């Protein structure tokens, strides 16, 4: 391959991951110099979770043609990959001899990627509005699956007491899932969204998503990095390397290619979701370990997602990016 072609491939991969993780690093810097404080991070997170992201997901879900859902092999591949990663991580934890308490945290981290913020930002950077539309369906289904699996895993390993009924009620109250469900209903009802919604979606994608990514960086506390142990590093490798690799193997085996494969990779290659920390703490697990895994995967994801996407672009498997 010519040097110019190699450079073009690298620039293509960086054009997807660079802006996303550039905002995260900006948040780290702003937190370091004192311009972003914890109250700002908390306020942005509340606004994102309760209003901005549900609206963005509603608009994206409403644009999906659900008559073709039965052909959504990339969605099925994502589900199979999640279950495969979970099972393989349990085998790995038993082989490594991890304590039962740590096993549950490790297993949750191995499959639970940050779909709703980092994943969707990467998909938008790669494929624009088409990427958001492609990501809407797996985001809805896999977010629900992630929560179900997390409750089961943490109940089994940490002795959490959250009942299936409480878990289902919590998902029904989740603003992200509500936004997606309303979008699906609008699409099935053939409701054409007014132009105002299109403009709102563009504004959220272009302006609010970067602000949310800055808040993720602002939540990272660099002074905790010296406490990272081998278990944290191993969990990060599973989340950023093993999980996405298994996902791509499953997807390619099922014949997934083009933008759906790229979207699936970017969703699976995202760092550990912050919600995993909340669930570990609620189950009275090792919150420090859970937080450290989130920090490390967020910091490293820019490198691993770029390298993985670069490989897929080089192989010609993910179609044209914007």
Task: Describe what this molecule looks like in 3D.
The chain is mainly alpha-helical. It has 13 helices and no strands. Residues 1-5 have low confidence and may be disordered.
List keywords for this structure.
single chain, about 325 residues, mainly alpha, globular, disordered N terminus
Quick structural summary:
It contains 13 helices and no strands. The chain is mostly helical.
* Helix and strand run: HHHHHHHHHHHHH
Shape: globular
Question: Uncertain spans, ≥5 residues at pLDDT below 50?
Answer: 1-5
State the oligomer.
single chain
State the end-to-end distance: 23 Å
Write the layout of secondary structure elements.
Layout: H1 3-33, H2 38-62, H3 73-96, H4 100-111, H5 115-127, H6 129-158, H7 164-172, H8 175-188, H9 195-219, H10 230-253, H11 259-268, H12 275-282, H13 287-314
Helix pairs in contact: 1-5, 1-9, 1-13, 2-6, 2-8, 2-9, 3-4, 3-6, 3-10, 3-11, 4-6, 4-10, 4-13, 5-6, 5-9, 5-11, 6-7, 6-8, 6-11, 10-11, 10-13, 12-13
